[in-house]
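Problem statement: downstream parser choked on a complex file, so we are re-checking the raw output for the adenosine-5'-triphosphate run. The parser issue turned out to be on our end (a line-ending mismatch), but while we're here, posting the original submission so the record is complete.
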Amino acid sequence: MVESGGTILIADDQADIREALALVLRAEGFTTKGAASPAEAALLLDAGGIDALLLDLNFATDTTSGDDGMRLLASVKTIHPDLPVVVLTGWGSVDLAVRALRAGAADFLEKPWENARLITVLRSQLALARARSTAASLTHPTAQGDIIATSAAMRAVLTMVEKIAPADVSVLITGESGTGKGLIARHIAALSHRRDKPFVTLDLGAVPESLIESELFGHTRGAFTDAKTDRIGRFEIANGGVLFLDEIGNASLATQARLLSVLEDGIITRLGEATPRRVDVRVIAATNADLHQLIEAGRFRRDLLFRLNTVEIALPPLRARGDDVFLLAADCLAASATRHGRTVTGFAPDALAALSNHPWPGNVRELSHVVERAVLLADHDLIGAAHLRLGPVAAAPIEHMTLDQAERYLIQRAMAEAGGDAERAARRLGLSRSAFYRRLSQLRT
Ligand SMILES: Nc1ncnc2c1ncn2[C@@H]1O[C@H](COP(=O)(O)OP(=O)(O)OP(=O)(O)O)[C@@H](O)[C@H]1O
């Protein structure tokens, strides 16, 4: 949840709609800005300080094609790829909404919008973007597809990926947080015959349980109290393409049962509707949890695991990838230096040693975060170990630590893995937020 709101840019050519949206959003603690034309929206976005864009796809009131809005969406996603864009479409223009989602919109609302849903959608998109930016927005442009993998462990992964990508089978990608599961999922899609079809992601850890069924399968108007309009689900959006189910270990048993049945017969039913619809979707799932352990604990269905893991790809942690760490670091250094207009050119020997000794609990994401910060801190051409600020490294395997040392280590590791997000770190350790903060503050004294 977003406590302090965020700044929403409302792009709509109708002043009354801008005003109505602004009123609702301000009452909920958001700050708003308005743009009456795509050009004005582009200027305000360039000026910075915008956390999300609420974009009416039908800019000119006399058109319904949505072309102006789609053009703006395309340019926004190129220049600000991480900015969440929620689009507004006319009622019933599901095709336009689907086009927008495929072009990178985070979500859509149909006019007349429903205030409660407007707020929920914006809050969850902002929370997601925030979580990503604490941990991931500092990642380098290779996010677009260049996979750095020269170590034997990663070469074996890529060979396997090349073999299985063209076969239309379910894939389960496992690996610690930040090891590149999302990247590999996209790579598999890109190497398959579905490459020109939609690649749709749903993070099962990020959607509230009450919305998950409708996110996956869609709903019809009136299906439940808040369902004021029809809504298409991710399975239908992904039809013909790939659905990437991230954090599958977080799916509730009820969701697991629904997923299993869709995977078995390829048929979905929108909530509130009787008509079954056939979908042709390749599912790629990912998890950083140990699903076998979850099965033992009665929290994951064995039969679902068997449906998902026709092929299982285990991504090695960064610390097991040998010299890849240097190549990834160098790549990130070059990208960050360009982005920030810095003349940093490389790493000093002590920095290289630190890079290779650090255990990288947050893996590639942590590495790019650390290197980008170092680029900003460096005062010479070379990054030194001090600029990396890698902090204490576990001196001994955990079995040889005292309880205090182990606690300190696990807390630091969880924080690093969560990219500094204390709430996520607390969840990872199975602690309540307050219990986690208590331990964290003890650790700092
Ligand atoms: N081998 C690699 N080469 C280049 N970039 C990589 C590589 N592996 C990961 N990355 C980058 O690191 C970042 C984290 O990767 P990604 O989001 O795919 O990880 P993940 O395992 O899905 O994380 P999480 O479990 O937190 O969802 C991304 O920006 C990704 O592009």
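For whoever reads this later: The domain at 320-388 is CATH 1.10.8.60 (Helicase, Ruva Protein; domain 3).
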